[in-house]
Design goal:
Strand content: 25-35%
CATH topology: 60s Ribosomal Protein L30, Chain: A
Shape: globular
CATH architecture: 2-Layer Sandwich
CATH class: Alpha Beta
CATH superfamily: RutC-like
Number of helices: 2
Helix content: 25-40%
Strand order of the largest sheet: 3-6-4-5
Number of strands: 6
Order of helices and strands: EEEHEHEE
Structural class: alpha+beta
Number of domains: 1
Largest sheet: 4 strands, mixed
Length: 140
């Protein structure tokens, strides 16, 4: 049995651009991905630039999901924390292209929050996620 994800859209609401208002997922195993920043396997920030940091943080989220046996399409929720909302807006075309390369046309429920700072020096982006990973078929 595989996990199923349905987009939830209240009747009469316009379709949101680039995300879903809600995702309903069942059955499967819940995976909660801690906030991922743009560091490599040596815990070094990959770039001082915003867009490469965003894309590396997203890569790290996807890597955790894959390590649990999932795929990007199993992600139901993404929360992104940024230190500079304008940098996100200015980088949106590149971010969108990179997002689609990593996630395809899968748009989970998402939120973007501007924060005063992140714990790791130099980090400008932190992304956390929830995924529903298909589990083995259960017999009753």
């Amino acid at each position: 049995m595989s996990a199923k994800h349905d987009t939830i859209q209240p009747q009469g609401w316009p379709r949101p651009k680039g995300y879903a208002n809600g995702m309903l997922a069942q059955p499967g195993r819940l995976l909660f991905v801690a906030g991922q920043i743009a560091w490599d396997e040596n815990e070094q920030i990959v770039s001082p630039e915003f867009v490469p940091q965003f894309l590396k943080a997203l890569d790290n989220v996807v890597a955790v999901v894959r390590a649990a046996g999932g795929q990007p399409e199993h992600i139901c929720r993404l929360t992104t924390y940024v230190t500079d909302k304008q940098a996100y807006i200015q980088g949106a075309p590149e971010i969108g292209k990179g997002y689609r390369e990593r996630m395809g046309k899968h748009f989970p429920a998402m939120a973007l929050v501007q924060v005063a700072g992140l714990v790791e020096p130099g980090a400008q982006v932190e992304i956390e996620a929830t995924a529903v990973i298909p589990g083995p078929t259960e017999s009753t």
